[in-house]
Amino acid sequence: MSALLKRFAAYYRPHRRLFVLDFCSAVVSGLLELAFPVAVTLFIDRLLPTGEWGLISLAVLVTWN
């Protein structure tokens, strides 16, 4: 382990729970950011061509906020 990594670990040792919470929050945030383009792709490629306007309207209303 390098000296810099040892200093980092020593600083966060008393704050382990906070560090784990922060790290997990960053991972969840990154995954949610990746989910948006996937949802748009599914909407455009799979839902719009079906022409089911009731389902399309429902999807738009659910994702409006």
Describe this structure in words.
The protein is mostly helical and 65 residues long. Helix content is 80%, strand content 0%. The chain is rod-shaped. The termini are far apart.
Keywords:
single chain; 65 residues; mainly alpha; 0% strand
Sheet with the most strands, sense and barrel status: none
Radius of gyration: 21 Å
**What is the β-strand count?**
0
What fraction strand? Answer: under 5%
Q: Give the overall shape.
A: rod-shaped
* Helix segment tally: 3
**Average pLDDT across residues?**
89
* Through-space gap between termini: 46 Å
Give the SSE layout.
Elements: H1 3-12, H2 16-47, H3 53-62
Précis, in short:
The chain has 3 helices and no strands.
